[in-house]
Automatic annotation (TrEMBL):
Gene Ontology MF: a single term: microtubule binding
Family per similarity comment: Belongs to the TRAFAC class myosin-kinesin ATPase superfamily. Kinesin family. KIN-7 subfamily.
Domain (Kinesin motor) ranges: 25-347
Entry keyword Coiled coil: yes
GO biological process: microtubule-based movement
Bias (Polar residues) ranges: 507-521
Name of the protein in its database record: Kinesin-like protein
TM helices/strands, residue ranges: none
Keyword field: ATP-binding, Coiled coil, Microtubule, Motor protein, Nucleotide-binding
Organism expressing this protein natively: Pisum sativum (Garden pea)
Compositionally skewed regions (Acidic residues) per UniProt: 434-444
Origin organism lineage: Eukaryota, Viridiplantae, Streptophyta, Embryophyta, Tracheophyta
Coiled coil segments of this chain: 356-425
GO CC terms: microtubule
Extent of the signal sequence: none
Length: 879
């Protein structure tokens, strides 16, 4: 055991200080042993020699075909006659004694079997421990603790060499300490004797076996670990000491071997496999580490590399002593060892001093650091003032940004709201278009067999949930129900509105109507009798509308018609008066109100004076000739409903009453020919005066007009619903005459509009035959759907039979719908009306419709109750 002089130790300590925390390469030493007696007796030649302290040379250069280099250079090479002490002192000592300065270290012995690994490591271990003991003795100011532990890895099993228990040790990874062997025995070294005792024990415990090459061949990897802790004695027990803690590993690897060379078998062969495999892993790790610490390093492929991981490129100083046999027979194994050594010398580690602070020392240090930081914060330095100003500025910026955020949020919400509105609008339009396309594309209905469209505009103008969509869009059964409900609803509204309208119209002193339309409120006649023309005026387009409002460009709406303009005409003072019912308003109307009409001065040649009813009628008839264009009647919007008819009717009746009240006398009616070969008397414009004396004439006239109306309905493609309502409501009573006349007049007008060849551009005409045909087609489709809903299966079968529709034929309901109102034969008409009435539930409303429409407005003094039996029977035949 070599003693370490004080001078030498100081040199090491300086060196440790320089190297601590810095990267350094593994120290590679090569030791060439002499030929063993066996090799000598076997006439082995020594092909390897150390030509200097760092180079080993292969001198059998005559060997042909060799591609290996002849000289290998390392940190230090030792000839066969070198003692282990020299190997230690000139090579391993520096690494081994790093532990005294708190730096981990490891010394490996790597080489083929019988190359002298154990021989070398036993010596190095003892020299190192001896030096450590000397170091301890030389540093009495410090307190040292030296712990000894030893393990072996045998067939990939880790065993505690200080324990007689062969229980394998568990290996786990500690985040701070790295790989840790659980329950590993650690003996605190007392003295040299104690060390020798332990080493002997380990040697006895280690797996050793006889092989062909080595009588005492190590069959396991052995690691002897010395852990050294040191603290300055002056701080011990005061809680503020710091401790240096480090370990040094003495690793005696099992020797790589060739089975053929060692002639091993059985247990030895198995041992050799494990040995070679683990050494191969070690070689791989070293080779990868030699190329840099990039990528995955397979430490975990063997217990050996896992345990030695900190020593291989980690926090440790490492020395590898590669032992060689010079014998020619081992040349390949020797070259392999040299290749390993070459790789190892490229591997770098980064060792640093391991200082363990006591808890108290750690707390004290942290408190000191905290006090320093608090002092900096409390110091009213100039810099702090700057911070205050900076903080204030930042606060202002934050406040400003908050404002901007709030404003932007508002704008965003507003924009989102607008987008939603827009999307809703676009969505509705899209739905409308799609629905229209569906209707247009549906070829299931024979257009040629269609007659007219449903009262579709009712939906459009009265359903608050249906704003601007295609009126013909009844998408499902619910819609069909809604359709029927709306009919009734609208009819109720119609009744009240008609009455109010009749009472309310007034004109100002200039002869112009004060009934200004509220734009967009074209609800007056459910889109049939009114429409919004290009001038945004609500116009009555009822063909039977005899009101000379047209000539006056009088505009009106329901909103304004609900207010009656009263008060002094001179002052123009107006008073809003709630609308009254038609019945009580017309006969007993205050003179003051009716005098409002006196100043009316109708337009030139086309107008008439209230004092000249004859001329007025004539003019009106002439006006009607032009109304097709001026009124902008739409086929869809015009004759589609009984409501339309009623509205126009009331206008006409109102004027007649007006004339009578204003003139105060019967006007002599000069029967001038009208456009439609009618005059006032012909159309029964004042039936209350005529009818009493001519009941029989009226009966004949009604029959004639009824036939004429039915034919016009057919040729003008009037909606079936309208036809049904009209047909069933007006059955020949004397009071019906006025309605019959109005219907005739507007149908004649419509027909003329449809078939006027002079219309240069039919597409520009709002009223076209095509539109009416399409509308009628939609109405028939609607009736088809209602058939499914209104009629039971049995009823449908019965009706199909009655109508000559084969029960096995396809699309029976469509066939029936196409046949309804398809000709003008009276029996056919009655049957058609009966079916349609069922479908639209006319029978449930019955005559109440007529009352609701205000159709019983005829003055009580002249009510004829004569009825035609045929019309009675029609209603009675309703299913
Ligand atoms: N440098 C040396 N000088 C003299 N004898 C040596 C030297 N090295 C080794 N020997 C001898 O060689 C034999 C084998 O040595 P050793 O057991 O140390 O080899 P090994 O590499 O450990 O073998 P194994 O791997 O099989 O355990 C021993 O008898 C040993 O005394």
């Amino acid at each position: 055991m070599g003693a370490i002089g004080g001078e030498e130790l100081s040199k090491w300590e300086k060196m440790q200080g320089v190297t601590s925390g810095c990267e350094e390469k593994i120290l590679v030493l090569v030791r060439l042993r002499p030929l063993s007696e066996k090799e000598i007796s076997g006439n082995e030649s020594a092909d390897w020699e150390c030509i200097n302290d760092t180079t080993v040379f292969y001198r059998n250069t005559l060997r042909e075909g060799s591609t290996f280099p002849s000289a290998y250079t390392f940190d230090r090479v030792f000839r066969g006659d070198c003692a282990t002490k020299q190997v230690y002192e000139e090579g391993a000592r520096e690494i081994a004694l790093s532990v005294v300065g708190g730096i981990n270290s490891s010394i490996f012995a790597y080489g083929q079997t019988s190359s002298g690994k154990t021989y070398t490591m036993v010596g190095i271990t003892e020299y190192a421990v001896a030096d450590i003991f000397d170091y301890i003795q030389m540093h009495e100011e410090r307190a040292f603790v030296l712990k000894f532990s030893a393990i072996e890895i045998y067939n990939e099993i880790v065993r505690d060499l200080l324990s007689t228990d062969n229980t394998p040790l568990r290996l786990r990874d500690d985040p701070e300490k790295g790989p840790v062997l659980e329950k590993l025995t650690e003996e605190t070294l007392q003295d040299w004797g104690h060390l020798k005792e332990l080493l002997s024990f380990c040697e006895a415990q280690r797996q050793v076996g006889e092989t062909y090459l080595n009588e005492k061949s190590s069959r396991s990897h052995q690691i002897i670990r010395l852990t050294m802790e040191s603290s300055a004695k002056e701080f011990l027990g005061k809680g503020n000491s710091t401790t240096l803690s480090a370990s040094v590993n003495f690793v005696d690897l099992a020797g790589s071997e060739r089975a053929s060379q060692v002639s091993s078998a059985g247990v030895r062969l198995k041992e050799g496999c494990h040995i070679n495999r683990s050494l191969l892993t070690l070689s791989t790790v070293i080779r990868k580490l030699s190329k840099g610490k990039h990528g995955h390093i397979n430490y975990r492929d063997s217990k050996l590399t896992r345990i030695l991981q900190p020593c291989l490129g980690g926090n440790a100083r490492t020395a590898v002593v590669c032992t060689l046999s010079p014998a020619r027979s081992h040349v390949e194994q020797t070259r392999n060892t040299l290749l390993f050594a070459c790789c190892a010398k490229e591997v770098t580690t980064k060792a640093q001093v391991n200082v363990v602070m006591s808890d108290k020392a750690l707390v004290k240090q942290l408190q000191k650091e905290l006090a320093r930081l608090e002092g900096e914060l409390k110091t009213p330095a100039t810099a702090n003032c700057d911070y205050v100003a900076l903080l204030r500025k930042k606060d202002q910026q934050i406040e400003k940004m908050d404002k901007e955020i709030r404003e932007l949020t508002k704008q965003r919400d507003l924009a989102e709201s607008r987008i939603e509105d827009l999307l809703r609008t676009v969505g509705k339009e899209q739905i409308s278009k799609e629905e229209e396309e569906i209707w247009e594309d549906d070829s299931s209905v024979s257009e040629s067999s269609s007659i007219c469209g449903p009262n579709t505009r009712i939906r459009e103008f009265n359903n608050p949930h249906y704003n601007g969509g295609d009126s013909g869009s009844y998408r499902d059964e619910e819609d069909l129900d809604e359709y029927c409900k709306e009919v009734r609803c609208v009819e109720l509204e119609e009744s009240s509105r008609d009455n109010s309208e009749y009472l309310d119209p007034s004109v100002n002193d200039n002869g112009d109507s004060d009934l200004t339309v509220s734009e967009g409120e074209n609800v007056s006649d459910h889109g049939i009798s009114t429409r919004l023309n290009e001038d945004n005026r609500d116009e009555h387009v009822m063909s039977g509308n005899m009101s000379n409002h047209r000539n006056l460009n009088l505009t009106r709406s329901w909103s304004c018609s609900r207010y009656r303009m009263t008060g002094s005409p001179e002052t123009g003072e107006m008073e809003r008066t709630p609308a009254n019912g038609f019945e009580k308003g017309l006969p007993g109307r205050p003179d003051g109100l009716w005098r409002k009409f006196n100043p009316l001065n109708y337009d030139g040649s086309k107008s008439f004076s209230r004092h000249d009813s004859q001329s007025s009628i004539e003019s009106q008839s002439v006006d009607d000739e032009h109304r097709g264009n001026s009124m902008g009647i739409s086929g869809d919007e015009d004759i589609t409903s009984i409501h339309t008819f009623v509205a126009g009717m009331k206008e006409m009746v109102k004027l007649e009453y007006e004339k009578q009240f204003v003139d105060g006398q019967d006007q002599e009616t000069e029967r001038k020919p009208m456009k439609f070969d009618r005059n006032v008397k012909d159309v029964g414009i004042d039936p209350m005066l005529e009818a009493p004396g001519t009941p029989f004439d009226w009966s004949l006239q009604f029959k004639r007009q009824q036939k004429e109306i039915i034919e016009l309905w057919q040729s003008c493609y009037v909606p079936l619903t309208h036809r049904t309502y009209f047909f069933l409501l007006f059955r020949g009573e004397q009071t019906d005459s006025i309605y019959m006349e109005v219907e005739l007049r507007r149908l004649c007008f419509l027909k003329e509009t449809f078939f006027d060849e002079n219309q240069s551009d039919r597409n520009s005409q709002p009223i076209t035959l095509t539109k009416s045909v399409k509308a009628l087609r939609r109405e028939r489709e609607m009736l088809v759907k209602l058939m499914q809903k209104r009629f039971s299966e049995e009823e449908r079968k019965r009706i199909f039979k009655e109508w000559g529709i084969g029960l096995n034929s396809k699309r029976r309901r469509m066939q029936l719908a196409n046949r309804l109102w398809s000709n003008t034969d009276m029996n056919h008409v009655m049957q058609s009306a009966a079916v349609v009435a069922r479908l639209v539930r006319f029978s449930e409303q019955g005559r109440a419709l007529k009352e609701m429409f205000g159709l019983s407005f005829t003055p009580q003094l002249t009510r004829l109750t004569r009825r035609r039996n045929s019309w009675k029977s029609t209603r009675a035949s309703l299913p």
